[in-house]
Amino acid sequence: VDHHLLIVTRSFEEQETWLTVQDFEAMGRCLREFEGLAFYNGRKLAGASQRHKHLQLIPLPLTPQGPKIPIEPAIASAKFQGAIGTIPSFPFVHAIARLDPRWAKSPLEAAVATNQCYHDLLRAVGLPRDESSSSNKQSGAYNLLATRKWMLIVPRSQEDFQSIPVNSLGFAGALLVRNEQQMQILKDCGPINILKSVACL
């Protein structure tokens, strides 16, 4: 992907640790500079390939034609109860929240609000942080996607589907295949069924 950006912690932190206000401040500063899709693969089961903690960011649009992100029509259909919503066409556990683009004017304020939103979403999908524990390790694998306008979290149950690896971009509508055999599996099974198989029901 052209202009693919990694947001990496200066000192070593495990990819299996919770995201922090500092992580979201870095993400927000990048999103303030250009419109993009930020994502995080929480644990190897969710597609993480490196131990060193890192968010990733790619510019939008993902494709030259159609929606900026393939799942945009699904995002637009989200139904909210309070601050947390779900997408009717997603047959797996997930939660989405709106982000306020005005937060970008104050990176620290935005980071604090985004971090709170992140933990609200984690609780909604059954992955709450144990505040009484001294461990910063995540309680489960998940994918996170975020733009200037929304954040989505999807818990994970397995790393791949019939040899097709799935990371956060899969839940943005961008499943990547390596060969014709995988392409045929994708065509036969359909993207939503593949995502359903690697998410939690």
Characterization of this structure:
It is a single chain. The protein is of the alpha+beta class. It has one domain: HIT family, subunit A (2-Layer Sandwich). It contains six helices and ten strands; from the N terminus they run E-H-E-E-H-E-E-E-H-E-E-E-E-H-H-H. The chain has helices at 21-33, 72-76, 107-124, 168-171, 180-189, 191-198, and strands at 5-8, 36-42, 54-59, 79-81, 84-86, 95-98, 142-146, 150-155, 160-161, 164-165. Helix 1 (21-33) crosses helix 3 (107-124). The chain is globular, with a radius of gyration of 16 Å. It starts with a strand and ends with a helix.
Question: What's the arrangement of secondary structure elements?
Answer:
Layout: E1 5-8, H1 21-33, E2 36-42, E3 54-59, H2 72-76, E4 79-81, E5 84-86, E6 95-98, H3 107-124, E7 142-146, E8 150-155, E9 160-161, E10 164-165, H4 168-171, H5 180-189, H6 191-198
Antiparallel strand pairs: 1-3, 2-3, 2-7, 4-5, 5-6, 6-8, 7-8, 9-10
Helix pairs in contact: 1-3
The strand count comes to: 10
CATH class: Alpha Beta
Instruction: Determine the N-to-C terminus distance.
Output: 30 Å
CATH third-tier fold name: HIT family, subunit A
Structure described in brief:
The chain is built from 6 helices and 10 strands; from the N terminus they run βαββαβββαββββααα. The chain is of the alpha+beta class and 201 residues long. Strand 5 and strand 6 form a beta hairpin.
